[in-house]
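Hallway conversation turned thread

IA: we were arguing at lunch whether anyone had actually written out Transcriptional regulator with XRE-family HTH domain end to end. Turns out nobody had. So, for the record, here is the sequence (508 residues) and right after it the structure tokens. Reply here if something looks off.
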Amino acid sequence: MTWPVAGRSGNLSHGPGRPPREWTLIEDLRRCAGWLLWSRRMSSDLGLVPVKELAPVLESLGLSESQVSRVEHGKVDVPLRTIHSYERLLELPYGELQAPLLSLSRVVDDDLGRRWLQPSAVPEGRSGAIVDEIFDAEEAGAPITGAQWLRLAHAVATGVCDGVPTRLLFRWVRRLLSELMRGVNNGYFVRLEAASTVAAYDHTAPMVLRAVRELTAVPGVSGAYDAWAVVGDIRNPRLLDQLIEPLQTVPESTFRAFCAALSQPGFDQRLTTEQMRSICSACAARLPTAGHTTVEVVDRLIGWMPRSVTAAVREEIARIRPRTRRSDTSQDDRDLDAELAVYLRFATEAAWPGRPDGQLEALLRVVLLGEQFGQRMHTGSLLWVSPYAAALAEAAVFVASSDDFGAAAHDAAIYVLSRTVTADNEELLRSVLADTRRRDLRSACLMALGHISALRTEDDLRPYLCDSELRWTAIYVAGITHHPQLMSPEAESPDARWWQSVGPGCWE
């Protein structure tokens, strides 16, 4: 169904338009923010209303007609309070638009993003009311939403929670991280930003590290990578040393988790020269026996360090990469323009026919071709929050199913599907899952059905549970949806027992 504004005539806002040059990295956060706010407003019923007629409502939210125009065209910086005003204008939960933009700002070298991350920038957080809300919800055994967690995190960042007893605050931090590890869609995005905010605050940083160690030490745990990535937002160098010192001797999975955590302080240039040398020494010692995944993790980690420190590690990666790199995903013969044309055609036809979105094209380039994992991931989150998500997921299934595209395009399409799928895609996903023989696409569609909470009690997961290549995905989707076959003999495993003990996914 196209946007309501597609049938309207007259002087219409078209958003920030195409950036001055092609992106493979995010180059301008205010364009991203303006685009998201514009697309969400124009795709809603408010898109039918001229901005002049919205003036009284805008004024009540602290916005003006001219400000809306400048913000949506990416002409001015966008304060967090303005993003929150749009959440209120569109009647969205607190953080639905803020969280993915804030998370993206952590992996982009941009002055606006740095200002967003200052405690003084948060639109809500100076009131103790959220502390009472969290306390009352926990006492009553009630769920806590992602919006509440983000408000609590903002209260932590502004010092409001400094008087909360340490044991109580640690319990809340631990629960937040536990829910993050089971977070799905918006329930994941908002909890991720809440956890990152809490990790960056010195008072709660040790609590984050302790909680992550405890939560990820359980057999069969899911979401460990996400939890360890949050540790990277800790700013205390002594706490980071606790990850660096054992790097050479920890098990492989723990090594990759620690590398994920250390990537963020590497990007932020918060590692000392001595810390970087210690990291490189440990990596060089492990690389000769490392597999493809570990090699790529190390490559991402050292990418932010000076070559004078990383020379030996880079030489070792160059020497062993031919042994570890997949041979079927070469980018050499990839036709990116043809891929983009498919995604943009699906998006334009579903949203605003005849009005191609140049900023959407720029963001798609980052997701399809970007080499910076964090930017690729959080740009994908922006696409999910945008009104284009379902159309992009449909396009991804088309590309992934087509013989006209090679392995690299197929892999990228499966990634896009994982980042953009919505409930509107259920029928398509079920059809492809039933018909395709490709294991990677079947796994992606099964995962997607879980992420949109579309699995029903009568859906039989046993064929997937008994398939060694699909088993992990089947247990995961059974876990997040609390499917009854999670308790079946076919699912019996540490993974299934972990899900049984912690409960289903967190969507809200």
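OS: looked through it. The chain has three domains: 13-121, 162-324, 338-502.
IA: good, adding that to the notes. The domain at 338-502 is CATH 1.25.10 (Leucine-rich Repeat Variant).
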